Amino acid sequence: MAQILSSISSGISHTNSVENGYTDLDWDNIGYGVTPTDYMYMMKCSKDEEFIDGQLIPYGNVELSPAAGVLNYGQGLFEGIKARRREDGRIVLFRPDENALRMKVGAERMCMPSPSVDQFIDAVKKSALANKRWIPPPGKGSLYIRPLLLGTGPILGMSPAPEYTFLIYVTPVRNCYFKEGSTGLHLYVEDQFHRAFRGGAGYVKSITNYAPVLKPLTNAKDRGFSDVLYLDSVSGKYIEEVSSCNIFIVKDKTISTPATNGTILPGVTRKSMIEIARDIGFKVEERQISVEELLEADEAFCTGTAVVVVPVGSVTYQAQRVEYKTTNINSVSERLLSTYDAILNGQLGGKNTGWLVEIN
Ligand SMILES: Cc1ncc(COP(=O)(O)O)c(C=O)c1O
């Protein structure tokens, strides 16, 4: 059996003391980078087996065969979940079963075995608890949990790798991925590069979807934009999603978002916001949305685990730039965000209570 991921060479030493259960990070200035934590989780299985037992191991570098499927052919998936510490001292995850199911769908597409939903949630909980001192104080941020499913066995021919590794690492992050946060994102509508195409893998969180967007994303950032909004690759007329979040528009009190038809990642936050919006009385449509409709919308916002709900401040398409008001405290995005926060903080009972998984 291939000796993959067999040695953990941490090389990382934590000098942080633990005060009141926290590590001594500057909690008021958490960034959105990788801060090494204490433990990571690892579970392996071979191609025709199921995952059985995983374990927590010290956080550190991993050793891989140079012929690993993930390194050569991009056979890999990732997920993103946040653990948040509440004022009442509880630590909660938001709908981790949805991430587990999405990983299963992705694994099927990428010819990989996947952990069961229970194994996935158990591993996520263990990873967060083992790194509890890195979970930011209430309101200061969250512990970003990154599950990976990788083809780690060596393979030269074009076939699924002979061995797989499910790995989870965690890192503390600030509340919103974008520094712009509530002041609004400035999106560049990309009409040259596409993120996904019909029959491809745009609907799963495959690592192969992300490297190709670095070029348009870097170009846009160099020009002062926050992120890129991609268009459908067939007609180039309809909006799809942003590099790491879904998009919604609001027109005359109706909320619309592009339908997930195989080229858009079905975001857990997207799905939750659709349900929340309907519950609080909005009409929500999932359908094709043209760029023109976006430019004429009353409001636009993005959703995702990393951003939660963030307003769009402007959209630039070819030579046209449209600005949206982002200071309205009665905006749809504000209402969705405050309902979401109330659910997370346990202030709303009812069906949404089942969305939270407590880990302590
Ligand atoms: C391309 C893309 N779209 C949308 C999302 C939002 O998904 P979620 O709400 O599950 O984080 C993400 C982030 O995971 C993403 O990478």
UniProtKB/TrEMBL annotation:
Enzyme class: transferase
Catalyzed reactions: L-leucine + 2-oxoglutarate = 4-methyl-2-oxopentanoate + L-glutamate; L-isoleucine + 2-oxoglutarate = (S)-3-methyl-2-oxopentanoate + L-glutamate; L-valine + 2-oxoglutarate = 3-methyl-2-oxobutanoate + L-glutamate
Cofactor(s) for this UniProt protein: pyridoxal 5'-phosphate
Family annotation (CDD domains): BCAT_beta_family (cd01557)
Record Pfam families: Aminotran_4
Record's GO cellular component terms: cytoplasm
SUPFAM superfamilies: D-aminoacid aminotransferase-like PLP-dependent enzymes
GO terms of molecular function: branched-chain-amino-acid transaminase activity
Residues recorded with modification N6-(pyridoxal phosphate)lysine: K205
Record-listed E.C. numbers: 2.6.1.42
GO biological process: amino acid biosynthetic process; branched-chain amino acid biosynthetic process
Gene3D superfamilies: 3.30.470.10, D-amino Acid Aminotransferase, subunit A, domain 2
InterPro entries xref list: Aminotrans_IV (IPR001544), Aminotrans_IV_CS (IPR018300), Aminotransferase-like (IPR036038), B_amino_transII (IPR005786), BCAT-like_C (IPR043132), BCAT-like_N (IPR043131), BCAT_family (IPR033939)
UniProt keyword terms in alphabetical order: Amino-acid biosynthesis, Aminotransferase, Branched-chain amino acid biosynthesis, Pyridoxal phosphate, Transferase
Signal peptide limits: none
Keyword Isomerase belongs to the record: no
Keyword Nucleotidyltransferase: no
Similarity-based family: Belongs to the class-IV pyridoxal-phosphate-dependent aminotransferase family.
PANTHER family attached to this UniProt entry: AMINO ACID AMINOTRANSFERASE, BRANCHED-CHAIN-AMINO-ACID AMINOTRANSFERASE
Protein name as it appears in the record: Branched-chain-amino-acid aminotransferase
Lineage, uppermost ranks: Eukaryota, Viridiplantae, Streptophyta, Embryophyta, Tracheophyta
Gene name in the database record: LOC110799475
